[in-house]
Amino acid sequence: MTVLVTGGAGYIGAHVVRLLQEAGRPVVVVDDLSTGDEGRLGGAPLVRMDLSAADAPARLGSVFDEHEVDAVIHFAAKKEVGVSVERPTWYYRQNVGGLTNLLDAVEAAGVRDVVFSSSAAVYGMPDISRVDEDAETLPINPYGETKLVGEWMLRDASRAGRLRVAALRYFNVAGAGWDDLGDPVALNLVTIVLDRLHRGLRPLVYGDDYPTVDGTGVRDYVHVLDLARAHLAVLDRLGEVDEPFEAFNVGTGHGASVLQVVREVERAAGVSIEPELVARRPGDPAELVADASKIQRVAGWRAEYGLEQIIDSAVRADRFRRSR
Ligand code: WQD
After folding, report:
1. Choice among 91, 143, 210, 221 that is catalytic
2. Residues 114-148: pLDDT tens digits?
3. What are phi and psi of 204, to 5 degrees?
4. In principle, which of 167, 194, 220, 293 could form an S-S bond with 251, CB 3.0–4.6 Å?
5. Whether 145 contacts 139, CB under 8 Å
6. Based on the domain organization, do 184 and 299 belong to the same domain?
7. pLDDT > 90: what percent of the chain?
8. Atom 34 (ligand 1): residue with closest C-alpha?
């Protein structure tokens, strides 16, 4: 009963690995360590491999055999939206090619249960602020497109065979469940703000004339530990789900504005911050908040943490990382 976690050395994957370890469940990690860190794995077995490489299906087959894998949680993927616009073909090779190889091996080994790391980016710029899973999927960049294509591949494979799949559409993930598992890369608002503070720079606010509570962009920030728990919750319920493929939003159902996030960082870090207003960033919806009632109904999951705890934990993990 081993769970294979691809990308288990990454920010979110490592949280899932640690939860599995705490639950006493056998786990094996596949990661190319391109952005991951073996130090996060707490001794979990690691097979270093690039899932998009030609020999990946065969190598995965050996991992499935050797570890008696019966479920897969697939995180290994690229996530920089900007790079996906500059290098779309490479992006498709990484995210869609990697998943294709994984699916080949999953089908050959007869593994049944797959949880897929998807994204709210599949919705693009919806004209509604609160989206449920039936909202139109119209991604606006190759990153979001690779996530949607991944969902389609898994949906079709699950209909054709015996796979059972849950795709989790993450909203804005932040925070740290353990101080040593913070996100070291400044790619999202919370980590960008912390990074700029350390460099003595003012955080940038991309536009303050949106039709939102204070004019700045509103997102649904979800604690990475809550998100990690969602993976285990859906994995445990896959057998009871009606459809072989289901997509689930993972968010809190509550929105926070850029300025509210900045104020929380100010409080948690004990510094005063004067953000700098700049132009809107193209492609940013004003407000994107999850209707997360489906995952609560089907898997009994709901977020336990709010913005304050997310930011507290992010600041703590950031301090911990810089003190090492
Ligand atoms: C949040 C809000 C910005 C930086 C993206 C991807 C998504 C997922 C998460 C995966 C927005 C504003 C940001 C800054 C700002 N990707 N902002 N100043 O755009 O909601 O989602 O990241 O890993 O697929 O699309 O997240 O954190 O970039 O922005 O004002 O310096 O913060 O305009 O309103 P986003 P984000």
Report:
1. 143
2. 999 999 999 999 999 899 999 999 999 999 999 99
3. -95, 140
4. 220
5. yes
6. yes
7. 97
8. 217
Q: Are residues 186 and 110 in the same domain?
A: no
What's the residue count for the chain? 324
CATH number of the domain enclosing 228: 3.40.50.720
- Please state the pTM of the whole predicted model: 0.98
Residues 94 and 225 in one domain: yes
Residue 303 belongs to what domain range? 174-220+253-323
Please work out, in degrees rounded to the nearest 5, the angle formed at the alpha carbon of residue 267 by the alpha carbons of 266 and 271: 45
The verdict on 260 and 243 lying in the same domain is no
Mutating to test ligand 1, I would choose from 284, 287, 310 the residue with most ligand atoms within 8 A of its C-beta, which is 284
**Helix/strand/coil for 172:** strand
| Residues 106 and 180 placed together within one structural domain of the fold | no
ipTM of the prediction: 0.97
**What is the pLDDT, as a whole number, of residue 58?**
98
- Are 278 and 292 in a shared domain? yes
Centre of ligand 1 to C-alpha 46, Å, is: 31
Residue found under tokens 């991944």: 150
| Residue 143 annotated to the active site | yes
Instruction: Specify which residues 28 forms β-bridges with.
Output: 4
Q: For 66-107, what is each residue's pLDDT tens digit?
A: 999 999 999 999 999 999 999 999 999 999 999 999 999 999
Query: What is the reported pLDDT for 69?
Result: 98
